[in-house]
Design brief:
CATH superfamily of the largest domain in chain A: Nucleoside Triphosphate Pyrophosphohydrolase
Shape of chain A: elongated
Strand content of chain A: 25-35%
Largest interface: A-B, 52 and 52 residues
Oligomer: homodimer
Number of helices of chain A: 6
Number of domains of chain A: 2
DNA sequence: CCAAAAGTGTTGAGAGTACACCCATGC
DNA sequence: GCATGGGTGTACTCTCAACACTTTTGG
């Protein structure tokens, strides 16, 4: 057998990407979903997805899908995993690679979202989803929680300036539990990646809270810091 | 456009699995590699891999590859991620999904390994590898370290009975750093997943060390225990 | 007796948690 | 003045890391 035959004898598969798009608004973590425009399960709520082209990497395909559905480029994307149960899509054998994306809801293009029949859903009100998408969302959420425990997230989800309370509420949304305000503050400031600005936000409290932003020269949190050494 | 067309217009891809097979022997973490039997890069050291069939899940395909190369079934397998750079395989566009596997070297079939032109390589002596396999190995190693920090590994890598020193040496191999014997012992026993047996191993010390095994009724370490709560 | 691993105990530093408590201000 | 969030400080607990020390036994 020539090596060409070795390849050509192998089967070819439809390859899709599905994006779990997280956004944060009104103290809630949200998911961007749209109504599936084609059979099977037309009209069912679905993750944003699309097929991977023959000269695209999966990452490129995911970026394309994201751009089409939000109008945004250079979005934070992280691969979750491949889902390949032969029966996961009843219409055809499609292997899907899931990504999660972090979006600033205030920056995306609402017209485009509308046009796609899409909607932001609070994480704890997500409707029934088509195919194996519930499982994909579950895995993506776990990965987001993992990421947030290893480094300070927020740059991709919050406005350029934010208060520590806003950041805390984001973490509360990600972990779905309350955090002590004082302890959170000390912990986060100790990481040395935030910088206090001279402006205050007085919308959410009478006293007003200082705005912070991520230090542009962030000394790359050493990553492993929170991985426990057994 | 009918929905059938929606699918048939999409491109189809070669889908492969590559297995990063970890084993543990002589206090060293090892990798099972073989010489690539076909072009391109014939004869280069390579991960065990194979194409995914049209009715297989990726997990099934990985299990098949593992069975072919070690003679073992029911191996611990975990998906790492998909690698999809269009140029990763110079001969064709092949998307590969990587898995890592944990093997008891003493249980595998050495004849089969021989026949495949395969060899166990200590982790820190791994030769140059074909394609993007070095990157795949790197990612798999990170995942193994992550797994080992979240739960006690060893069931899949050590003999049925083992001493705490043997377990510690496994962790030292995974993390590539020395661990304090006393502290490791206390930490591990505190997890309450090991059970001391009445037998001793006197091969590795004059005094002899008690053998342990994983408690069959293991109360499922609560998983999140070591994920830090920010 | 000595070396070497097995196994136990002690101690100090640091992190996390649960609070108490003052500050500023809009109502 | 009082409720509300902003912000700081404190005290207790727990874990981890370092290391001393005792036990056992083959050579």
């Amino acid at each position: 057998m020539t090596y060409q035959q070795h390849y050509t004898n192998a089967s070819r598969h439809y390859l899709a990407v599905d994006c779990v798009i997280f956004g944060y608004e009104n103290y809630e973590l949200k998911l961007l979903l749209h109504k599936r425009p084609i059979e099977p399960q037309i009209g069912g709520w679905s993750l944003m997805g699309g097929f991977c082209g023959s000269d695209e990497s999966l990452e490129t395909a995911a970026n394309r899908v994201l751009h089409q559905s939000t109008g945004l480029k250079d979005i934070y994307l992280e691969q979750v995993q491949a889902f390949s149960d032969p029966d996961r899509d009843p219409a055809a054998r499609v292997v899907s690679v899931a990504f999660f994306a972090l979006i600033r809801i205030d920056k995306h293009d609402p017209a485009l979202v509308d046009e796609m029949g899409a909607r932001w859903w609070p994480m704890d009100e997500v409707p029934g989803l088509v195919f194996d998408h519930p499982r994909i969302v579950e895995k993506a959420k776990e990965r987001l929680q993992m990421k947030a425990s290893l480094e300070l997230v927020g740059k991709e989800l919050l406005p350029d300036q934010f208060t520590l309370t806003q950041l805390r509420r984001l973490y509360e949304a990600i972990y779905q539990r309350e955090l002590d305000p004082g302890n959170f503050r000390k912990k986060v400031l100790g990481l040395n990646v935030l910088e206090r600005l001279n402006t205050k936000n007085t919308e959410e409290s009478k006293k007003g809270a200082f705005n912070y932003h991520f230090r542009p020269d962030a000394d790359e949190m050493n990553g492993q810091e929170r991985i426990i050494k057994i």
